[in-house]
Specification:
This protein is an alpha/beta fold and 349 residues long. The protein has helices at residues 8-20, 27-36, 42-45, 115-129, 150-157, 165-170, 179-183, 186-189, 257-268, 289-307, 315-318, 330-347; strands at 70-73, 76-79, 97-101, 106-109, 134-138, 160-162, 205-209, 212-220, 227-232, 237-245, 274-279. It has a domain at 57-288: Metallo-beta-lactamase, Chain A. The strands form two sheets. Strands 1-2-3-4-5-6 form a six-stranded mixed β-sheet, covered by helices on one side. A five-stranded mixed β-sheet has the order 7-8-9-10-11. The structure holds zinc ion.
Amino acid sequence: MIRKIFSPVALSVSAMVLLMSGCSDDTTASSSVSQASKPAEVAPVATPAPVAEAPKTVEADEFAYKVEPKKVADNVWCFFGALEMPTRENGGEMANNCFIKGDDSYVVWDTGPSYVYAKQAYAAMAKEAGELPVKYVIISHEHDDHWFGNSYYKDVHGAEIIGPEAINLDFEIGSTDHRMFDILSEDALGDTKVIHVDKFYKEITDLNLAGIDLQYVPVGNAHSKEDFFLWMPSNKLILAGDIVMNGRVTSNRDGSVEGSIAALETINAKDWEVLIPGHGFIIDKTATDEYVEYFTMMRDRIEAAMDEGIDETGIVEAVPMVEFKDKPLYEALHGLNVSRAYQEYDMGL
Ligand SMILES: [Zn+2]
């Protein structure tokens, strides 16, 4: 059952404004405003007081990520990545991840593309909401833009890592033949290492971590081999991982159209008001609309094309879904998504 949304445009614009407004209230901007508003007569005679140097989030020899936490709910902040493929220039900073502040530590949802990213995100978070340790990390799925920061939280914080078993099955400890190692520069990777998750679950699991009640929900093969989302009932919040994206075309390279539609129904059956997609900036009640539309349209049009006898050689041309052609990554990913979906309907992946 898909939620019907009241006034989606107004809501999604307000969510965008909330997320895009970070620059105007960062510490640099507000301190220059307070300087400017000091009485003019004080300035010429007073020796400027030494300004305490803010703790560094970026070391001189590190790639400078644009980590800027945005508060999305009580005790929850997220970092939003670019609507791009991972590149050397963006340091792989294109997925969203979040911090939940508990009694004595943070719970981190997804850890980004590298050790250096995770280190800088934590430093920015510590500045924003306090220097608590990270005792728990929870991972949405096995794609490396979402968890290659795990080794930072294990090495520095001793965090327990909860995630899909698929990571342990598909990634050898210490291996480096993975996308991020090929793309990112040394100063972005830093001490990035493949490590395994400490705990994995196969059933819906209620957790109480650092005093926070959370539900970790497996949805099987939706966007990847094994996807999960996290539900925080007290905040009516869902951290969706890549089961939901918006503002760009998804990558369905190892996903399932039917699995995605079913996972979206599971999410929309929960009581939520705010949803953080794995990629994208729309977090209000309209957050899943675009993805539901993309996958239901793809299913319907592929089935119609197959009924007309179109086979794998003609399917990409037959299902262009021009409604999405202006979205970022359409050119790079849509054709591949259709090919993959055709295999699903033709052979039942
Ligand atoms: Zn993914």
